[in-house]
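During the first year of the project, the team set up a workflow for recording each protein of interest as an amino acid sequence followed immediately by a discrete structure-token representation. This format lets reviewers and collaborators read both layers of information side by side without switching files. As required by the reporting guidelines, we include two representative entries from the current panel. The first entry is reproduced here exactly as it appears in our internal archive.
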Amino acid sequence: MAYQRTSRTVPEWSLLVLALALVGAICFPLWQWTVANDENATPLTAERIARMLLGPEQIASYACFVWANLILLTRWLALRRERRAFHLHLLPTEEGVRILPEDARPLQRRVSQLSERGGPFVLSNMIRLALSKFAVSRSTQDASETVRTQAEVEVGRLAATMSTVHYLAWAIPALGFVGTVRGIGLALTVAPSIADHSLQDFLNVTTRNLAVAFDTTLVALLLSLVLMFLLHTIQRDEEKLVLDAQEYCLENLITRLYDLPERTRESTTTAPGADFGLEKAWPM
């Protein structure tokens, strides 16, 4: 029986589609009407689009954007692999099953064997550490604390390994601002050599360089918006993975750990027929 969590929340992608539909239904007709009645609207020619999208800063921004997305793609594939651990039946899910300290080591080996193919997994690592702690301390509280601590460690590790993507998300707008400074600088370099007969040439060069300045920032900011959305989406899914693994351990491991009191253990050795209600040992 695979572990599945049910959620009553509406999927975010459906809300995104609804938001885009509402905004598009209102804004697109207004935009068309505005452009149709604007005689001074500048048409987007092939030359204008080429100067907007191609340039040293734009190409550097594209390289950073593609690099960051390749990293995020590997993280997304890793997330899909991690989710398979919830379908490996690493822990008992039947009602009434208990796990004694003597069962911890065999169950730990069983978890290692099941997760050996396709692993390592965040979930299996969390389970092994909790079982190891329970086998030594025989304390449910210590095992629960181990699960919580390991969840914090996994969240910190996942956040730390995103440092390169965070840097690239910052570098892309910075490259756009570099292009802005370069464009403004180029526009100002021709100012001292201006003469009356070259006024039109000066205005043409200045306009072209200012267009470069603002185009690089526009492209970089758009790329940054897309990258930040993808980054936060992957980080949210990674944090949700750790939370689901922690909840899985609490529901199927911590609540099933059972340590017999000393007197009860002595009585079971003298009374073989002792029973613990509906509880049954987890078969190894």
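The second entry, processed by the same pipeline in the following quarter, appears below.
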Amino acid sequence: MPVLDCESYESSVESISSLYGVNTSEVIGSLRAIDLEREYEKGTTVVGPHELLLRLLESRIGSPAQTFQHVCWFHLTRVPPDTDFAEGILPLHDALPRIWQTIISIPTDPGTKANLRKLQESGVPDYLYTLKTGNRLHSGPFAMLVKESAFNAHSMRNHDYLAFPEIIEDICNGYQTKFGGRIHEEVSAALRPCIVKFEVAEEEGENLIKPVLNYCWHKEHGQELGLGTNTCYDGNGKLIPRSAIREIEFP
């Protein structure tokens, strides 16, 4: 069964080719020939661009011969330099004690360290922190389907997770609110951007065909990546085991 792997444009095309049982040249040629703007100018199309692209591609290369039963995802974060994810990728509620330990260890000023300990004990005055830590529904782990989205946060209207993981930024924001000092830069500088590639079984892999086609079409036509060229993984509070991790990269 084919594996969906969007590590690059090339691997994405190979995944599509495997899914449809055709050569990569057929996929590339079809994507190159599809002009979505011209199709809409005809005034006969009422479906959205994702669905239209799928229909136009399949009119050229046929229906999928298989389904994606395994999918590679890319977890974006910022971690201490020696992080090896020996325990896998932990959901937020399980990772939180370690996150606090890491943040507290970073400042060189004893007063800042003491304030961070007070913050951990008394609570963080930040709405997003309270929301994420108040319910395992928000525990993830989260990941991106398209690796390139890690480097196109602005155009895709995503949070830049390589620059600053959300929960760490929430803690730093809460620190500034409570103590008036800013520790964002010091904390961020002590951590390294990290991309963790992992592979999991996917029962509904056919739902991922549209975003990967959208990504490949944008790349083939030299267009800026947008929100529709990616989709996200939500672990729903469950650990991503170390055995599922395929690569740990510090870009």
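For the second entry, the following points were noted during internal review. The mean pLDDT is 93. Residues 3-70+199-249 form one domain. Both points are flagged for discussion at the upcoming steering committee meeting.
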